[in-house]
Specification:
The chain is of the alpha/beta class and 181 residues long. It has a single domain, classed as Rossmann fold (3-Layer(aba) Sandwich). It contains five helices and six strands, in the order βααββαβαβαβ. The chain has a six-stranded parallel sheet. The longest helix has 17 residues, at 24-40.
Length: 181
């Protein structure tokens, strides 16, 4: 069995994607705890920051594009700027992970049904094991309430796998980096 090398992936914890998010403060607290755990265990931390083309909502440098102030990447953390729901699409994410020898992603962040879901599935297809932090991602109410969207994605993603990897879904307090394959 291949040695597990984990990284914490924090998706789009920006003013725009968090605007009106379900249990925002609670989710940010969970993400902060995951950051501390990763720092304590010397696990790489990667942030994604979604941006749109001019005319969109998340223009690079705009107020809505900024990371929430409770999240403060360190100089050694990696920030991936992306323009698609899939954090691997036309970004350096896969290359960065390979350089670090990462084969397992622990995923948290904003907009469950878009960027979180798409990136979990893409990571799995690219050969990474994925652990979605069950209580560490959020979205906003739409035609379906945010709470229902989150529960649905926690269940659905827990059933997604390849012959070699799967998406595990577990609460933050049960996650120990490097302990899963």
């Amino acid at each position: 069995m291949q040695e597990q090398r984990s990284a914490l992936l924090i998706m789009d914890v920006q003013f725009g994607p968090l605007w009106g998010a379900y249990k925002k403060e609670e989710i940010l607290s969970v993400i902060q705890a995951m950051i501390k755990k990763a720092e304590d265990e010397e696990i790489p931390i990667i942030y994604t920051q979604h941006e749109e083309l001019p005319g969109g909502f998340l223009i690079r440098g705009s107020q809505f594009w900024q990371l929430d102030p409770v999240i403060s990447p360190r100089p050694q953390d990696i920030i991936i700027h992306k323009q698609a729901a899939d954090a691997f699409y036309q970004t350096s994410l896969e290359e960065e992970l390979k350089v670090l020898g990462i084969n397992h992603l622990v995923v948290t962040g904003a907009r469950t049904e878009f960027c979180v879901d798409t990136t979990c599935r893409a990571a799995l297809s690219l050969g990474f094991a994925v652990t979605l932090v069950e209580d560490g991602h959020t979205t906003v109410d739409g035609t379906i309430p945010a709470e229902t969207i989150i529960k649905h994605h926690n269940h659905t993603l827990s059933t997604v796998n390849t012959p070699h990897n799967k998406v595990s879904v577990m609460p933050a307090d049960k996650i120990k980096f490097g302990a899963y394959v």
